[in-house]
Q: What sequence folds into this?
C-alpha cells in the first residue's frame, strides 16, 4: 500500500494552520473564564473619575505581590476570596478605610491583566460588596504610572 501524507511544500501551511487553531482555542478558553457581566474600569477612566476614597486590593499570589503592587494595597488572593476567608478580609479593609476616610469607599480589584480581578468582583458582588475590576490589571496601571509615582497617582485619585 502506498501511503503519502502531505507534499513537503504543504508543511509550512499546515504548521501555520495548526498554530492559528491553537491560538484560537486558547483565546476562547481564556475569554470564557471571564464573567460576562463583571464591572470594570480602565486606568484612564479611573484617573478621570471624581472619587473620594479608593481602596485598591491585589488579588494575585504572594509572589506576584512581592514583586510589584499598587501603593500599599492589601493582598487578598483570589483563592482566598473564592474560599470565603478573603471576603471577610476585604470587609474588614473596607470598614477600616471608611472609618479613616469618613466616607464610602470605592473598591478597585486588580491582578496581572484583569481576569482574576473580574472573577473576584463577581464573588464579592454575590456577597453584597460593591467593587470594580481594574481593566488590564497592574500591567495597564504600569503603562500609565511608573512604580515611583504610585503615591502621587493614588493621592490624585483620592480626592480626600
A:
Amino acid at each position: 500500500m502506498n501511503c503519502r501524507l502531505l507534499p513537503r511544500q504543504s508543511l509550512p501551511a499546515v504548521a501555520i494552520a495548526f498554530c492559528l487553531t491553537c491560538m484560537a482555542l486558547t483565546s476562547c478558553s481564556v475569554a470564557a473564564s471571564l464573567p460576562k457581566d463583571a464591572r470594570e474600569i480602565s486606568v484612564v477612566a479611573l484617573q478621570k473619575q471624581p472619587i473620594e476614597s479608593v481602596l485598591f486590593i491585589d488579588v494575585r499570589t504572594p509572589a506576584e505581590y512581592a514583586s510589584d503592587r499598587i501603593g500599599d494595597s492589601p493582598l487578598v488572593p483570589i483563592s482566598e476570596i473564592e474560599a470565603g476567608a478573603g471576603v471577610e478580609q476585604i470587609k474588614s479593609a473596607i470598614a477600616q478605610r471608611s472609618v479613616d476616610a469618613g466616607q464610602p469607599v470605592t473598591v478597585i480589584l486588580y491582578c496581572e491583566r484583569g481576569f482574576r480581578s473580574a472573577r473576584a468582583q463577581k464573588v464579592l458582588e454575590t456577597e453584597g460588596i460593591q467593587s470594580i475590576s481594574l481593566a488590564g490589571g497592574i500591567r495597564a496601571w504600569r503603562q500609565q504610572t511608573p512604580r515611583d509615582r504610585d503615591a502621587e497617582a493614588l493621592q490624585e485619585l483620592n480626592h480626600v
